[in-house]
Structure formats: structure tokens, C-alpha cells
Specification:
The protein is α/β, with parallel strands linked by helices. The chain contains eight helices and 15 strands.
Length: 256
């Protein structure tokens, strides 16, 4: 098992309860105690965990998330995000259930969902507000803590916060996409998105092409877990080749 895979498993395990013991990690991972200690050291140096007596826990943090604040991010690359949102909405069949993760690109789907009579599970209050005027759209929310800067509801304590809802499609964004996979800047976001991925049949990633030029963050999933990627014409040629090799369906959304 590669170090990146172990780190993702460690983050998922800690995100479930906020703490995990060394003994539990040794039972979960196919690795020696020395290897696990090195993995924990890297994660702690990156600020994702805090090593404590007997194991590791999530770091104490204020009610905000790492990364660009929503009000700043929503104005960046807006024409591309609008085109991506329109193309993503066209993938929705009338009357089906979908999951839409919070983000400034997924938000651009909302205006194009009116009249499709969808059931939408989302953790984004921005998306809730955009969908509420649509009479035929039913909206579901998980329980949890509201992170004000992103206006998103997250519950790192686990599955109990999620409605009993299964949807064939998950639409999600990312802070960065690279050879390592799909990345986010905050471990709480990673845990929340993993719970959504585990419920989905089809994972649809919405990212503008600037996200391919970034390469840091906690890994949410590998590219082999992504079924469809919607982006703009600025995607680098080498990334097109990688996606093709991974059998990821690529949709290029052109701006007006």
C-alpha cells in the first residue's frame, strides 16, 4: 500500500470519531509500527492531525476551514464555472435523486435544475438558497456544524448525521486535481466528501482548468474513483491523457 493510500485511510479513520489509537491503526493498515509513525508525522507536519498519547486526533480548530473563502472563490474563473455548471446540470434526468457537494462551481448548476423535479441532498446553504425558489425541487440537508465562511454544513462525527438517502449521481468540486487524485485543503472536507462518494453510483467532478495547476492538499479520492469530469477548454493536454488512461469520461464545457 502506498503512503498516500495509508494517509487517506488514516484521515478517514480519525475523521469518523475525532481520534484513533495506534493499536486501531495497526489493525487497519498493512504497515509496520515504524511506517505508521512516519505517516502520522507527515500528517501532523501538514496540520491535518495532532499526535497525542496513545494515538492521533483531529487538531483543535476554529469553526472555519482551510482554503479560499467562498465569497472570494465565487468571483474567480466565473465564466468557466457557469459553463461547467450548465453542462453538469444537463447530466441530470428528470425526477431523479442527486447529491451536490458545496462549492462555487457546483453552485452554478442550480439555475439549470429548475423544472427537473429533482431530489437534492446538499451540505451547502448557498445551494439550498438557490434551490428553494424551485417549486418542484426537494432539498435535503445533513445535520452538523455550519462553517460560516463557506456556508456549509459538516459533521465530522460520522454517518449518523446523514439522511437515509441514496442517489445515483454525486456532483462535487475540488481545490486541486493531479496525478495523486482529487484534493481538498481541509481534512474535514475530505471526510465529508468520502461519505458522499460512498453513497454514490456515479462520481461527477466539476473543476475549472485552474485546478489542474495546483497540486497540494489532502487526497479525497484517486482519479480511478471519478466517473465523469466536467471542465473548460483550458485543461492541460497531459491531464487529458491521464484521464483517458483512467477511463474517466471528460466533458469540455465551452463558455458563451
Amino acid at each position: 500500500m502506498h503512503a498516500e493510500q495509508r494517509e487517506r485511510l488514516i484521515l478517514d479513520a480519525i475523521a469518523g470519531t475525532g481520534f484513533i489509537s495506534y493499536r486501531d491503526l495497526e489493525a487497519r493498515l498493512d504497515a509496520s509500527p515504524a511506517t505508521i509513525r512516519r505517516d502520522l508525522t507527515r500528517l501532523e507536519e501538514a496540520g491535518h492531525i495532532l499526535r497525542v498519547h496513545g494515538g492521533a486526533k483531529l487538531p483543535d480548530r476554529p469553526q472555519s476551514l482551510a482554503g479560499t473563502p467562498f465569497v472570494q472563490s465565487i468571483t474567480q474563473h466565473l465564466p468557466a464555472k457557469r459553463a461547467i455548471g450548465r453542462a453538469a446540470a444537463a447530466l441530470c434526468a428528470p425526477g431523479e435523486g442527486i447529491m451536490v457537494d458545496g462549492g462555487t462551481t457546483t453552485l452554478q448548476m442550480c439555475q439549470h435544475l429548475d423544472g427537473k423535479d429533482l431530489q437534492v441532498l446538499t451540505n451547502s446553504l448557498h445551494i439550498v438558497n438557490a434551490l428553494l425558489p424551485q417549486v418542484g425541487t426537494r432539498v435535503l440537508l445533513p445535520s452538523g456544524t455550519v462553517f460560516r465562511e463557506q456556508n456549509i454544513v459538516l459533521a465530522p462525527t460520522g454517518e449518523d448525521s446523514m439522511p437515509r438517502f441514496h442517489a445515483p449521481k454525486l456532483f462535487m468540486g475540488a481545490a486541486a486535481v493531479g496525478l495523486q487524485g482529487v484534493m481538498q485543503p481541509d481534512v474535514i472536507l475530505v471526510a465529508a466528501e468520502r461519505r458522499l462518494i460512498d453513497r454514490a453510483e456515479t462520481v461527477i467532478l466539476l473543476v475549472d482548468s485552474s485546478k489542474f495547476r495546483l497540486s497540494s492538499g489532502a487526497i479525497v479520492c484517486g482519479l480511478d474513483e471519478v466517473d465523469v469530469l466536467v471542465t473548460d477548454p483550458g485543461i492541460p493536454d497531459d491531464m487529458r491523457a491521464v484521464l483517458d488512461a483512467k477511463a474517466v469520461r471528460l466533458i469540455i464545457a465551452k463558455t458563451d
